[in-house]
Amino acid sequence: MKLNERGLLVIISGPSGVGKGTVRKALFEMEGHDLVYSISMTTRPQREGEVDGVDYFFVTVEEFEKRINEGKFLEYAKFVGHYYGTPKDKIDEQLAKGKEVVLEIEVQGANQVREKAKDGVFIFIAPPSRNALYRRLLRRGTDSKTSIKNRMDKANREFPLAHKYDYIVVNDEVRNAADRIMAIIRAEHAKTRRSIYKYKEMLEVE
Ligand code: 5GP
């Protein structure tokens, strides 16, 4: 029995190339969960194999900036020349329904969410080493040499920010990392501050 009936806002963040996307997908493939993925909006060009409305909502800079002005993002950031943002609508509704809403976002965006959603669960995904991250970016083959260098420089500035997070999960093996995140979600639900109201209610009924 889950005492905390409200869903959790789970923020998965960390340097680009660390495997946040792969870990998130593995997490969603696990059984018996109530996770919903918050699909981000971006101005970056669509990569081969990506589906609009599934991987991202791909929009123009004009459309993105219009939405910024309308206050439609929970957070947004410019990352290596492109905008990325989390649409605000529906997040609260999903949380109220007991769904865990998962954001997979870079570090600047996570900082903004931290200011707005104190109740969020902040998870920093770390690579097993700096070298492992570099090899991953190279292997991914979706980025140009300049983009890889930019992403690596950025990652080096982001590594020390892990201390701001509630949890650090090393992505040594995708499956292990996803298992750890699931364990974190379960443990968070059982936290006294999330469960105490329902617990008290239960005591009164009996
Ligand atoms: P990529 O271009 O590789 O898909 O994503 C680049 C970076 O942007 C990744 O670190 C990814 O997690 C992050 N990202 C994706 N969606 C969002 C978002 O909505 N907001 C922010 N701040 N970052 C995002």
Explain what the structure shows.
The chain is of the alpha/beta class and 206 residues long. It has eight helices and nine strands. 44% of the residues lie in helices and 19% in strands. The strands form two sheets. The protein has a five-stranded parallel beta sheet with strand order 2-7-1-8-9, with helices on both faces. Strands 4-3-6-5 form a four-stranded mixed beta sheet. The mean pLDDT is 93. Residues 16, 20, 40, 44, 75, 77, 79, 84-86, 104-106, 108-109 line the site of guanosine-5'-monophosphate.
Looking at this protein, list some descriptive labels:
alpha/beta; five-stranded parallel sheet; 8 helices
Q: What order do the helices and strands come in, and which of them pair?
A:
Elements: E1 9-13, H1 20-29, E2 35-37, E3 41-42, E4 57-58, H2 61-69, E5 73-79, E6 82-87, H3 91-96, E7 100-104, H4 107-116, E8 121-126, H5 130-140, H6 145-158, E9 167-170, H7 174-190, H8 192-205
Parallel strand pairs: 1-7, 1-8, 2-7, 3-4, 8-9
Antiparallel strand pairs: 3-6, 5-6
Helix pairs in contact: 1-7, 5-6
Bound molecules: guanosine-5'-monophosphate.
- What is the CATH superfamily classification of the domain at 9-38 and 98-204? P-loop containing nucleotide triphosphate hydrolases
Helix content: 40-55%
Strand percentage lies at: 15-25%
The CATH architecture category of the domain at 9-38 and 98-204 equals 3-Layer(aba) Sandwich
- Give the overall average pLDDT: 93
Helix-strand category: alpha/beta
Structural Rg: 18 Å
The N- and C-terminal alpha carbons lie at a distance of 16 Å
Give the CA-based shape. Answer: globular
User: Number of helix segments?
Assistant: 8
Tell me the series of helices and strands, N- to C-terminal.
EHEEEHEEHEHEHHEHH
Bound molecules: guanosine-5'-monophosphate
CATH topology of the domain at 9-38 and 98-204: Rossmann fold
Strand order in the sheet with the most strands: 2-7-1-8-9
